[in-house]
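Escalation from tier 1.

The customer reports that the assembly of two entities below gives different structure tokens on two consecutive runs. Tier 1 could not reproduce it. I'm attaching the input and our single run for tier 2 to review.
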Amino acid sequence: MDLSLSTRTEGDSTVVEVGGEIDVYTAPRLREQLVDLVADGKYHLIVDMERVDFLDSTGLGVLVGGLKRVRAHDGSLRLVCTQERILKIFRITGLTKVFPISDSVAEAVAATD
Amino acid sequence: MTDLGSATAGSSPHPATTFATRVLLVEDDEGDAFLVRELLLDAGSDVTIQRVRSLAEASLELPGEHDCVLLGLGLPDANGLEALGVVLGAAPNIAVLVLTGLADEHRGIEAVAAGAQDYLVKGTIDGQLLARAIRYAVERKRADESVRRLYASELRAAENSRLERGLLPEPVVLSGDVEATTRYRPGRHQSLLGGDFYDLVETDDGTVYAVIGDVAGHGPDEAALGVCLRIAWRTLVLAGVEPEAILPGMDAVLVGERDSDETFATVSMVRVAPDRRSARFWQAGHPLPLLLRGDDTVGRLPDDAAGVALGVVPGTEWTAAEVDLAVGTRVLLFTDGLIEGLDGRGGRGRLGESGLEALLAELLVGSTSARLAGSLLARVQELNGGELTDDVALLLVSWGQPSR
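Tier 1 run:
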């Protein structure tokens, strides 16, 4: 299973849609994407995880790293996720207290603006 | 321009299936090339020869399927030993025999010093000698190569055992009643350990502290960081630091020692009171431990016990969840490798915590800790349909009577 990535702009935010498995092999591509966006001056990111099937600790590390990068520019990184399986990982790792998590991209965009 | 395998000798009726020695002859002198072929044919040796006329042509062929290179030193596009350097650079594992003339035998000696297996002086060799020289050179090179590989694997094994001692230590148990049953299994395709670690210390007053943790990522750096955190934990416990200060202490060590901002670690820590009637649990982003009760039921910790992983938010404080313990309760601490395997239903579904609980309920009945740990790992692996991708560590803490 592979990782798919696409980005688009909505309002003031950049939405990164992620699909597939974010693991030790694919996480570097997500990292690169987030680094590129920040380098491009995009500091309000929404990572849409609705089509993510699997997320491991390396993937979590990349999201945490992304959050640190945007915060360095007073930006934000919101997640969109309603999948219980993935939400559970954020709960276990205590990251629900770190990442704002929305039910939909629209909600996340509204929260960013 | 190359001509392929035009001199094949030997007695096998099925030359295609024999393991003929494959020689790349690099020689621009037609006479010398002809002579080498004839000598080998005469000797009836099982050799296939591919001939090229220059170093440039040879470079295109290397590294290839050859066992041996016969290298003339008078090539049009290389100066003497330069050719040897290029050949060994392109194919370090190949045996090289250098062909020299009578007048420049000293260059043969230099070539051997520079990595050639042997040198042959043109005009002084017969077919038998040449065939034998090739055979010996190939065998010697193979032997060198296996010694090198053996050495590399010994180094790796030594590194692994050093890290393993650091990550998975002998518990410190003072009274006879505390038992720490541990299992560790490296993930698939991992030649080095990951960053899973555990430890258990019983202090003078009979309090039992246990910890399990996992540094995110997989490799020697993560493993070394796991060792740092494990030793930091034991040091803080032995120094009698207040339990609330232990995770913040480990957090500070992690932040100071990691080489990337993305590196974080998850930790689960438990402190069992000397009377064994209650325990406090601290959770830093780690799967919650399970309580295996004396009546063979499985208990969970409250969900709100979960705190943030180490190294994520500066200044985090972790609060404990206090749990009363029934007599005969055991505590199972584990890393996420145990629940990330497939659930055995044929899809991409993962075992998860509920799957683990169901397995435990099935395996728990009347099982000793050692048997339970063994059968649990075996079942998880079976459901996954083979070895697990990630490392798995588990620590099952049990005790008999209260220590006082």
